[in-house]
Amino acid sequence: MSSEQAVLRASIVATILVAAFGIVFGLLSRSYSIAFDGIYSLADAGMSVLALIVSGLISRSARSGALSDRLQHRFSMGFWHLEPIVLGLDGVLLVTVSIYALINAAMDLRNGGHTLEFDYAIIYAVVTFVACIVMAGIGIRSNKHIQSDFIALDAKAWIMSGGISASLLIAFSIGYLVDGTKLGWIVPYIDSAVLMVVCLVLIPVPISTIRQAFLDILLVTPEELNHHVERVAEGIVAKHGFVSYRAYVAKVGRAKQIELYFIVPDAMPAKTIHEWDLIRDEIGETIGFDTPDRWLTIAFTADTEWAE
């Protein structure tokens, strides 16, 4: 799978199948943890659909004539700003679902737990574990050259789902083995205890994604990118005899937004437009990141107020 959209489409289909499988087997086995796994996957699938739509809009906006005139007019600055919004919503939704399930599991433990059908539960855990490992492998391998935050988050979700399935398999196997023995008293508590552990593991996972999403939404300047742009600008000032510069840098999802204003001396000899464009080309090549996701503005002025 060589495109972001293809990977996300495959992931959505697989997630919906796993979610439906989990909800059905959760009802058959009377397992809260399996039902939660299915609902969690369903919520993730819904956000993946939204991510696919945003990814398509970003990709189309980079191609001339790919968007309708109405969309092009309404979103003349592009759709990059939607990416961190979707990532943030995805993370918040998954954390909220996990916290809700954690509270329900604690209440069930307090009420003495419940019994479940281990045969159905073990079948579910094995099938979903294999599916999660396969999908995580596809996502990780594809993202080596695609480099998408959406795919990275999706692969992380599959890895976590695989960990959940492995935990469920171990717990249900133990329950199956001890059922009817002197340790059988633990059987009613296994499902809720596993669900609590799973939720406690899942809750911190999206935190880094949520944090980065809010940084992007708030246009917080990335230090590494800012230092790189400033080093380039300082070199250009020294090379061409400018007075100073002003740099404005932000990361919005996959987009890098860079604005550079160079303050030139009043006494500098006049240059043709072509000469100024050659300097712009030099700056752009030195900064790098020359992809459709780079928004680079370079201006020259003798009036500092135009740069601030």
Q: Could you name the key traits of this structure?
A:
mainly alpha, Alpha-lytic protease prodomain-like, Alpha-Beta Plaits, 308 residues, three-stranded mixed sheet, 3 strands, single chain
In short:
The chain is 68% helix and 8% strand. The protein is mainly α and 308 residues long.
Question: What can you tell me about this protein's structure?
Answer:
The protein is mostly helical. The protein has two domains: 214 residues, Up-down Bundle (Alpha-lytic protease prodomain-like), CATH 1.20.1510.10; 85 residues, Alpha-Beta Plaits. The chain contains ten helices and three strands. The protein has a three-stranded mixed beta sheet. α2 packs antiparallel against α4, α2 packs antiparallel against α6 and α2 runs parallel beside α7. It is elongated.
Summed over residues and divided by their number, the pLDDT gives a mean of: 87
Approximate helicity band: 55-70%
Total DSSP E strands: 3
Query: Helix- and strand-based class?
Result: mainly alpha
Low-confidence stretches: none
Give the name of the CATH architecture of the largest domain.
Up-down Bundle
Characterize the main sheet: 3 strands, mixed
Overall 3D geometry?
elongated
